[in-house]
Each structure stands twice: as structure tokens, then as C-alpha cells.
Amino acid sequence: ADYRAWFEKHTAGSRASAAEAARYIPGGVQHNLALNEPWPLDVVRAEGPYLWDVDGNRYHDFLQAGGPTVLGSNYGPVREKVAELLAECGPVTGMLHSSEVRLARLIHDFMPAVSRFRMLGSGTEGVMAAVRVARAYTGRAHVIKVGGAYHGWSDQVVFGLRIPGTGSLEATGIPAGALRLTQEVPPGDLDGLRELLVANEEIGGTAAVFVEPVGPESGTHPVRHDDNARIRELCDEFGALLVFDEVVTAFRLGMGGAQGYFGVRPDLTVFGKCVAGGYPAAGGIGGGDEVMSVLEGGLTAVGKRAFVGGTLSANPLSCVAGYHALAEMDRTGAPGLAGRAGDRLRAGLAALIERYELPYVTYNIGSIVHLHTSGVLHLSLQDPDFFNQLGPRTEMLGQMSMAYSAEGLVTIAGSRLYTSMAHTDDVVDDALARFDRVFAR
Ligand code: PLP
């Protein structure tokens, strides 16, 4: 009740925006990340590790726009390059721009398994392209994904494909036919994956296996460290392409992404988020020369190649921002610094959980920090059923969400926190003092 009182007293501007939004926007928010109890915060300023709302409240920003800002929010040197570009040619012309080439070359240099890169408008589009390229390249139709993985919101690989145990569709508006060629295996179930690959041999084989290399939902369900290498072997054995969805991990886990981190080379890599340096229209697909040749073709080859498009794909604004952000991240060592901040945050949260003997669990992989507060005491991260045993998303989550905001903390749904280079020790320690106050209550 106190936290609700804080909202009523200090967030009148956000409340007014939310009331108007509810009238004109379905559900009152344009983006799930903005969902908040008792109402969304209207944020007007962002800088490094902080956000400010329209009422002047400052928050520690562990949302980091959902992941693309490893340098911290609204990083000045990248903003300046974007401003120069805008003054010169505006955000988009539809013609070739040198920034596209420089960005593709940088990605080629950093990512072990990427020789050629095609920029697209979002991670979702990158995944759609990967499905198409894999089918075109292999001449096969079936694709396999891992249960609980988020690969964007396209029909074929939508999140929460099936309600566990029922086999029925969870997603409204997607006809069962759209999922006819999509198959799912539980996280970490490599025997199940092998069985499926064997069974598919009878029905034309498998085009691709899609994985989030840190585990489904950015590692919400953790996987064993060597799972990726073993999936690589299985793909080789059955002639399926291995697709790494690196929308979150590329450049966040390191400049070589998860493929550098785990030392495993996928056939195709999907990009999003960081690839446009925290600016809009962030997506793409990369791979070796041969597999990427499926996307080749001049004016006369249209219709022969696998088609991808997008009016705003590879616009100069996204490419300038992406190029300069990646170059800065490499120069400053941002992924490593963000990762150290993630370690410090996780260690601090773990100490608080222990001190107050709370049924919570926290873990991280670099700058991707997970915090589950819905009742998971004594559950091993290696438990194959970890994901299903997380407690239900109860009213408590709404209470926690209010508590975090009132203490000046913004997270992803109270359960995931991204750190950035701007999360210095002092910043993390101040944030931990705020978590302390929430957990103490
Ligand atoms: N793949 C993963 C692993 C993601 O986390 C996301 C978005 O969060 C996507 C794909 C979809 O990317 P976008 O939101 O740019 O469409």
C-alpha cells in the first residue's frame, strides 16, 4: 500500500499519460517492456545507467531498452555521429550508403561465423530470413526450435508455441497450419533432439535447428555450457543448419557474441538490438559465403534468390549508429565492463537473498542478469524442469514492480536486468542498496 501511495504522490504526469494512452492505444502501451503496475512510467530522458520520468524521478536503468545499449543509454559519441548523418542526408534514401559496408565489414571482422551480413529491420525479421535461407539452402522444410525460446513474433517460431503438457496452441491468431513444419524440443534435451532429427529423415529431413545459445529467453532457462557444441555435432550429422539467435548475445557477451564465447560456429547468425547501436531498425542475418549466397542476385535475379525486403532495412541512420557503437564497444571493452557489472550485481543480489532468507534465485551470464522472485527455493539451475517450476506470475509480481519503481529501479518485468558499461561499481552498489530496501520489506 505504501508503494502505491508513492506512485500516487510522485507520478502524476505518468498517470495522466497512461490514462490518455489507455484511450488511444490497445492495452495502454505500445511495448510490453513498458508494462508496469499501477501504471506505465512516461520517460523523457535517458543517460548512461539512468532514466528520468516526466515527473522528474530518476531510476536506475536495468532495462537498457531491452538490451541494445551495452555502452549505456543515449551514448554521446554515437549520438553525435547520428546527428552528422541526419544533417547530411537524413535517415534514409533507399540507396547504397558507405555506412552499410563499414558495418558489414566490422561484423565480418568480429563474429567468427559471419563472412557476409544482410541488415534487416528487426530481430524478428532476421529470424524470418533465417528460416527462409535455411530452407532455400537445404531444400528441406522442417525447422526445430527449443521450448521457451523467444525468436520474435513471426507465426512460425512464435514464443510459447504450445501450452506445456497440452500440445495445444497458446498464441491466438496463428492457425495450426502455420506451425505444421515447426517442431519443438525441451531445453537441454539433446536425446530428444536426436530422436526428432532421426524421425525427420523419413519426412524430408531438417532444414535448421534454432537456438538461443545462452538458453531460452536469454537464459531464463539456463543450459549446460557444452550444449551448443553438442547441438553443432548433431546438426552436422543430420545435415541441418545450426542457427544461433544472437539478437541479445551478439556484442553483449563479447564482440564475438555467443559464438566467440562458447567457441561454436553456427551456419547462420541472427542479429538484432546492438547491431544498430541502440537506434531503430536493428536486425540482420549473417553466415558464410556459401549459405549467404542464397540471398544473392542482381536486378535480373529477382525471383531466383530467397527474397528478403524492408523499406527501412539498412537505412543509413541504423547503419551509422551500429557502426560507431560497435567500434566504440570494441575500443572501450564495453562488453567486458558490462559483464563485470553483471557479476557484481548478481553477487550483491545473491548476498541479499541469503541475508533475508528469501525464496528467490539469481544468476547471470555476463551482463544478462536473472532474478526470479516467485518462489524457487532450493531449485537447481541444472534441473531440466527448472523453467516449469518457476512460480506463477502472481499479484506479488505487481507488488514487486511497484516496489522497484518506488525505490528508483527499472528492470525487465522484475525478472531480468541488463547491465552496461555505464554501470560502474558505485552505480551498482547504489542500486543494490535500493534492492536491499525492497527485499527487507
Ligand atoms: N530473438 C531474441 C533472442 C530476442 O530476445 C528478441 C527480442 O527480444 C528477438 C529475437 C526479436 O527481436 P525484435 O524485438 O527486434 O523483433
TrEMBL record:
Keywords: Aminotransferase, Pyridoxal phosphate, Transferase. InterPro entries: Aminotrans_3, Aminotrans_3_PPA_site, PyrdxlP-dep_Trfase, PyrdxlP-dep_Trfase_major, PyrdxlP-dep_Trfase_small. The keyword Transferase applies. Its cofactor is pyridoxal 5'-phosphate. Transmembrane segments: none annotated. PROSITE patterns: AA_TRANSFER_CLASS_3. The keyword Transferase applies. It holds the Pfam family Aminotran_3. GO terms for molecular function: pyridoxal phosphate binding; transaminase activity. SUPFAM superfamilies: PLP-dependent transferases (SSF53383). Belongs to the class-III pyridoxal-phosphate-dependent aminotransferase family. PANTHER family: GLUTAMATE-1-SEMIALDEHYDE 2,1-AMINOMUTASE (PTHR43713), GLUTAMATE-1-SEMIALDEHYDE 2,1-AMINOMUTASE 1, CHLOROPLASTIC-RELATED (PTHR43713:SF3). This is Aminotransferase class III-fold pyridoxal phosphate-dependent enzyme. It comes from Streptomyces hainanensis.
